[in-house]
Structures are given as structure tokens and as C-alpha cells.
UniProtKB/TrEMBL annotation:
This is Prophage phiRv2 integrase. Residues 395-409 have a biased composition (Low complexity). GO terms for molecular function: DNA binding. It holds the Pfam family Phage_integrase. Residues 30-49, 363-420 are annotated as: Disordered. Residues 410-420 have a biased composition (Polar residues). Residues 65-147 form the Core-binding (CB) domain. PANTHER family: PHAGE INTEGRASE-RELATED, PROPHAGE INTEGRASE INTD-RELATED.
Length: 420
């Protein structure tokens, strides 16, 4: 029985002996055809129904745009909607790792198997685990957008398992290394920067972007509200990494003294004393790449194994854990987005476990079950069986810190990097 106009047709091609399902539709006033071939009539009838669904849903008009062409246009969207760092990372990984492998395929024909083969090929080529993971994540984000715009029938990345990535182990400085580094940096241009990072756990970008208006020396507090980043050779002031990174950190008297000395140093050298707290030797804001080069030289001269400045942050966390500070308080101080519980931090939680002329106090948040004895100077001496007395801040917030076992978390924080 002959079908009506628009219903399509099924016929056998005498030259190829294959069955053909064909539907005619109109787009922008032009007549178009969509065809699928199969080995038998039953499959052809099934294909005809699928073609009708495509025409009705609008997928039949999908063109032959390649994955590479689409991704290049998507990158332009990323540039408009994201930070410069995100844009550069996306552009580099998509351009160097994704497009060379699957860029020539038609967007509508990209399959989960193609995505998996891309991942396998990147691994075979020795590409780093984090780069492989980002290649998948960026491609998935692009495909989600294509699906929402009805450019593809389904997201080919959805069935593919996200590649795992093992974060590099943290390598914090030891007590002896910190002592040696502080001794070498005594009087050095970057001494106060190192000391502030060591006693606050701030990220390098947060230290570089710290302004005097966010330092309260009267109340011994630092308000972390921005960071200085380097993207493609350009310096950029932007919000901290996560919402949890916007925080207030209590500082010890020795840290406050280091900041006072830093302001005196800026005045002495003729640098602006009302903008950034820390400057490079050239009088400009600190560029991370240049600082890393200088940092490498400093460690070499001090006789210390090289590791990135970010390890100062891990050193803070390690010392705090070893001092018995609750993990939730450490997480709050570091500005982690995945901390177990939120707390408003207004007390000093860092405890230095070594002696040095620049470090004169040993402070920490006490365990609620530990006895506290008032003293005349407003602090409390806490004694535990088998422990030496130590001083701790007695602010209300420090007393409200709940009992949290940090033994299990200590092993994790001291052996793996948080990437933050």
C-alpha cells in the first residue's frame, strides 16, 4: 500500500540489494531527504520510524559540523563566561589533546566509544592523569551544551566513566627545614611573606593579593577576600578559589609583628604602603612564575630540598594537626570547600612546635575535655598528663570548638595534597 506524502518510504535498492528507509521534509523552504539503509525490510521499517522521530524533534536537520569546529566555537563561549585562567586551561587542553584525536569526526556521530578511545590514546601517549581527566571534563561540558541546544541526540560522554586522577602527595617542610629556612631568610625581602604563609596557611595567590585594607592589626585578623592570579602572563585580581575561601583568619602576635615589619620595609624601600602587603623586589606585585624561580634559588642556597611554595600551606596544616587542632577548625582556616562542618573562625589555631627567635608563642585551640586554668594575662595554661604546658587563646569561639578526632584525618592531610 502506497504511503501518503510526508510518511516516507521503504524500498530495496536493486544495485546494493539493501533496504532503504527515506523521509522527505522541508527546512527553510527547501526540500530535504533523510535516508538510512539496512540489510532487511524489518530493520528498514524500524529506521523509518526513527527518521520520523528525528524530523518531528528537529534532529533531522543536524548538519555535518565537526567536533573540532564546534569545540572551537565553544571555547569562545568559555572565554566570555569564565575567568582567564579557566579559559586558558580549557583552550590549551581542548586544542592540544582533544581536537587532534576526535576533531575530524562529525559532531552528531561522536559516540561513547570514540570518547573512551580518546581517553585511552591520551594515556598511551603518556599524558598526565590530571590532564586526561580535564580533557574528559571539558569535552563533557561542551557536549552538555550541545545537547541542551539540540545539536546532538545524546551526550556521548555520559556513559563513559570519568578518568581517575591521583593527586600528588604533599611534601611539607620538616621542623628542622623550617628553622633553617627562617634563619636563612632573616632580613631577606621575602621573610615576612614566608612567615605569614607559614602561620596562616593562606594560598600563594591569597598572599600575593593581600591588601592592607584587609589586615586588621588592632584585632589581629586577616580578611581573605581576593587573590592575585597569573593567567597567560597577565596578573589579575579576582575572588578566592571558592566561597569557603572568603574567610577571616586570626593571627598570632608574632605574625602581626611580621606584618608591621613588612609595612616598615615597604616605606623604607619607597614601595606603596597602602596597597599590596607583599611586593616583588622590583616594586611590582608578585608574579607567581617569577616568584617560583626566586623560591627555587632560596631553597637551594638554604640547603633545603626544592618543593613549591604551596607546600608552606601543607606545612601549616601538618603542624596544626600534630598539635591537636580539630580538623574542622583547620579546614575552616585553610578555606576548604569540603570541610565537614562550618565554623566562624575568630581565634588563632596554629601551634608552632619548635623554638626560634621569631616564634615566641605556642598557641592552639584546646580539646573541650581538657582542664583550663585562668591566668592573669588573659590566656589559659592547659595541662595534660604527659604533656608540657602550652598557651592557648581563650576567646569564646576557641572554647566552642567541639571534640573532633584528628588522628585519621592527620594521616590523610600529611600524605596527600589537597590541590588547593
Amino acid at each position: 500500500m502506497k504511503r501518503s506524502n510526508g510518511e516516507g518510504t521503504v524500498f530495496k535498492n536493486p544495485k546494493t540489494c539493501k533496504w532503504v528507509a527515506q523521509v522527505t521534509y522541508y527546512e527553510d523552504g527547501k526540500r530535504r531527504r533523510k535516508t538510512k539503509t539496512s540489510k532487511n525490510r524489518s530493520d528498514a521499517n524500524s529506521n523509518l520510524r526513527k527518521l520520523h522521530e528525528e524530523v518531528e524533534s528537529g534532529f533531522a536537520s543536524l548538519g555535518s559540523e565537526t567536533v573540532g569546529k564546534y569545540l572551537k566555537s565553544w571555547i569562545e563561549t568559555v572565554e566570555r563566561e569564565s575567568t582567564r585562567n579557566t579559559y586558558l586551561s580549557t583552550r590549551n587542553i581542548i586544542t592540544n589533546h582533544v581536537i587532534p584525536i576526535i576533531g575530524r569526526k562529525q559532531l552528531v556521530k561522536l559516540s561513547p566509544m570514540d570518547v573512551q578511545k580518546m581517553i585511552d590514546k591520551l594515556r598511551d601517549n603518556g599524558v598526565g592523569g590530571r590532564t586526561v581527566q580535564l580533557a574528559y571534563c571539558y569535552l563533557n561540558t561542551a557536549m552538555v551544551r550541545a545537547y541542551s541546544f539540540r545539536m546532538i541526540r545524546e551526550n556521548p560522554c555520559s556513559p563513559v566513566k570519568k578518568p581517575k586522577h591521583s593527586y600528588a602527595k604533599a611534601n611539607p617542610f620538616t621542623v628542622d627545614e623550617v628553622k633553617a629556612l627562617l634563619k636563612y631568610l632573616d632580613g631577606h625581602h621575602f621573610h615576612n611573606l614566608f612567615y605569614t604563609g607559614l602561620t596562616t596557611g593562606m594560598r600563594p595567590g591569597e598572599l600575593f593579593g593581600l591588601c592592607w585594607e584587609n589586615v586588621d592589626l588592632d584585632k589581629n585578623k586577616i580578611h581573605v577576600v581576593q587573590q592575585l592570579s597569573n593567567a597567560g602572563g597577565y596578573k589579575e585580581i579576582k575572588p578566592p578559589k571558592t566561597k569557603s575561601s572568603i574567610r577571616t583568619i586570626g593571627i598570632s602576635d608574632s605574625t602581626a609583628t611580621a606584618l608591621i615589619n613588612q609595612r616598615k620595609l615597604l616605606v623604607k624601600k619607597g614601595y606603596p604602603a597602602n596597597e599590596f602587603v607583599f611586593y616583588g623586589r622590583n616594586g611590582y606585585s608578585i608574579g607567581y612564575i617569577n616568584f617560583q624561580s626566586a623560591w627555587r634559588v632560596l631553597l637551594k642556597k638554604a640547603g633545603i630540598e626544592h618543593r613549591g611554595f604551596h607546600q608552606v600551606r601543607h606545612t601549616f596544616a601538618t603542624f596544626a594537626i600534630n598539635s591537636g587542632v580539630p580538623i574542622t577548625v583547620i579546614s575552616e582556616t585553610l578555606g576548604h570547600c569540603n570541610r565537614p562542618t562550618k565554623y566562624t573562625l575568630t581565634c588563632i589555631v596554629f601551634c608552632m612546635c619548635f623554638n626560634h627567635q621569631h616564634i615566641q608563642e605556642r598557641k592552639r585551640c584546646p580539646h573541650p575535655s581538657q582542664p583550663r586554668v585562668p591566668t592573669s594575662d588573659g590566656t589559659r595554661t592547659v595541662k595534660r598528663s604527659g604533656d608540657k604546658p602550652f598557651l592557648t587563646d581563650c576567646s569564646p569561639d576557641s572554647r566552642s570548638v567541639p571534640s573532633v578526632s584528628v588522628r585519621d584525618s592527620a594521616n590523610q592531610l600529611t600524605t596527600t595534597g589537597d590541590g588547593n
